[in-house]
Design brief:
There is one protein chain. This protein is 8% helix and 37% strand. It is built from 5 helices and 33 strands. The chain has helices at 68-72, 78-90, 189-198, 201-211, 380-383, and strands at residues 7-10, 23-27, 36-40, 107-111, 117-121, 174-177, 183-186, 221-226, 229-231, 236-244, 254-258, 265-269, 274-276, 282-288, 295-302, 307-309, 314-317, 330-334, 346-348, 351-354, 362-363, 368-378, 387-399, 406-413, 426-431, 436-439, 443-444, 454-467, 470-477, 480-487, 496-503, 505-506, 517-527. The longest helix has 13 residues, at 78-90. It is rod-shaped and about 175 Å long.
């Protein structure tokens, strides 16, 4: 500690180099009522501050630094220290007084563990998955420390750019969600089991069809089996099934012959002997029935998803003998006003041909023109029992909507007087401009109703099967099947003949309508 000695009163503090040491200078201006003490130690440093700094201006270079730490840093005078302090202060930040944004104020100060500072991008501060487009780095991730909810508020939430792991068998878990929104992994069993409850009937059908390779899984049905009777002779029979949803999957189907109750498989038809069609209406197979016992058999179909057993049956008998038709003769009845000469419309053997006759007139309304009636086709001895009749009808030409070209054909009572309007017991009425109907029940035929001018080349089939007092009439028209099953009301002892009635041509088609031609063939008659 300095030992301050004598007191020297002066009017002004001597310069630093002229001051005595270990003294107190009392400085008072001439005539002043107060003075200021300045203590000068042995080093010449002033040790006592003025009581009122504003009362005296001192030059910094008059004040010496005695602190060893500061001296070691090169500070000898207050002036040097102040200069260094001002330089340091120039490097300091001002206290912020205004608000800004990361676009205009792009830097912030960062501090490391050693107290070093650096400028950092202001835009990086506060970045997160909610407000920024981020890219992860190695080691980055998110670990939940508590339950966490992401509420989309009805906005889209997407995860894009994922790799396709469809062929990787290790990806066998699904992302699932419960009713409260909680997410977890699942093997998919719960969702799969509940799927049928979420689908409409049409969606179920579409799904089943898709799972079956695009082939039908709809409920199959068979309306008729043709022919309905075969024999045990050593030969193949081609069997045609007509119905709905018969377009089976070629990779997964079967056709089996069942007993009459449909409970036992009797034989399996090799798939190589089955012809499948995409129209869903037809299925054809051939089979040799020689090893099957006599009796009735049903057919069972498998479409890859479900079985179906037919209601119609095939009857296997010992020997099938078609009834000869070579002895048929024909009667003709013409409307002389329309057809004074009948030369191109003819009937012979087992066929009838309709064409515009020489001098045949065109009329403005649909009128009877030409009719044919056969001799006895089915004697009462057969008609009283069971029989099967197959007919083919072919029509070609240009059909016009403004015409009414049509015709009727079928079985009639052979004893009924011949007229253009004989009562048809089992047959069909074809009118290409309105509709076609199975007789006598007047049931609409699917695939009819042309209703436009069109070049026509149509082959239709008609099958009449009588068993007991039940008659089944099936029409295949434009590839569509219509089957009518009704009661046979004819009494026993009635011979049956074949009848066909053709309408007139319309006069508005005098240039083109006359090229319409029709052929009707009696293919076969079998006693069952």
């Amino acid at each position: 500690m300095s030992n301050i000695g004598k007191i020297i009163r002066v009017n002004a503090l001597p310069p630093q180099g002229e001051r005595e040491t270990n003294v107190i200078y009392q400085v008072a201006a001439p005539g002043a009522a107060t003075y200021t003490d300045y203590a000068i130690d042995e080093n010449g440093d002033m040790k006592t501050p003025v009581a009122d700094p504003a009362a005296q201006n001192l030059s910094d270079d008059l004040i010496k630094i005695s602190d060893p730490g500061l001296v070691s840093e090169g500070f000898i005078t207050q002036a040097q220290f102040n200069q260094n302090m001002n330089e340091d202060l120039d490097l300091k930040l001002n206290t912020p007084l205004i608000d800004g944004n990361a676009q205009n104020f792009t830097k912030v100060i960062g501090l490391d563990d050693h107290g070093n500072t650096a400028k950092l991008p202001a835009g990086d501060l506060g970045k997160n998955v909610a407000n920024s487009s981020l890219t992860t780095i190695a080691g980055a991730g998110l670990t939940l420390g508590a339950n966490w909810t992401l509420n989309t508020s009805g906005l889209y939430y997407s995860i894009t750019g994922l790799t396709d792991a469809s062929s990787d068998t290790t990806f066998n878990m699904l992302l699932a969600q419960n009713a409260s929104g909680r997410i977890g992994k699942s093997n998919g069993k719960g969702a799969f089991i509940s799927l049928p409850n979420q689908l409409t009937e049409s969606e179920k059908t579409a799904w089943k069809t898709g799972m079956n390779g695009g082939w039908t899984t709809n409920t199959m049905s068979v309306a008729v089996i043709l022919p309905p009777i075969v024999d045990k002779q050593d030969r193949d029979y081609f069997i045609t099934l007509k119905g709905a949803n018969l377009n089976l999957n070629p990779a997964s189907f079967s056709v089996e012959i069942m007993n009459s109750t449909g409970t036992t498989v009797i034989a399996t038809v090799p798939n190589s002997q089955v012809q499948l069609y995409t129209n869903g209406v037809d299925l054809v197979f051939y089979y040799n029935f020689k090893n099957l016992p006599l009796g009735n058999y049903k057919i069972r179909l498998w479409n890859g998803v479900a079985y179906y057993i037919t209601t119609p049956t095939i009857n296997v008998i010992d020997l099938l003998t078609p009834i000869g038709l070579s002895g048929l003769s024909w009667s003709m009845l013409n409307n002389t006003t329309i057809c004074p000469t009948v030369d191109l419309t003819t009937a012979s053997g087992t066929s009838i041909h309709r064409a515009r006759n020489t001098n045949e007139q065109f009329v403005g309304t649909n009128q009877d023109a030409v009719s044919f009636k056969s001799s006895v086709l089915i004697p009462s001895a057969i008609a009283d029992g069971d029989f099967y009749l197959e007919l083919t009808n072919m029509t070609s030409g240009v059909i016009y909507y403004d015409g009414s070209y049509g015709y009727d054909y079928g079985l009639v009572d052979a004893a009924q007087p011949f007229s253009h309007s004989m009562q048809i017991l089992a047959g069909i009425r074809r009118n290409f401009f309105f509709d076609e109907r199975i007789l006598p029940d007047n049931i609409f035929v699917s695939g009819s109703n042309t209703n436009t001018s069109v070049g026509l080349n149509r082959t239709s089939k008609l099958y009449i099967t009588k068993k007991g007092n039940i008659v089944s009439i099936s029409s295949i028209n434009n590839g569509q099947l219509t089957t009518v099953v009704s009661t046979w009301f004819q009494p026993n002892g009635v011979d049956l003949a074949f009848f066909a009635n053709f309408n007139s041509y319309n006069n508005s088609n005098s240039n083109n309508g006359a090229n319409i031609q029709t052929d009707i063939y009696i293919n076969s008659l079998i006693q069952l």
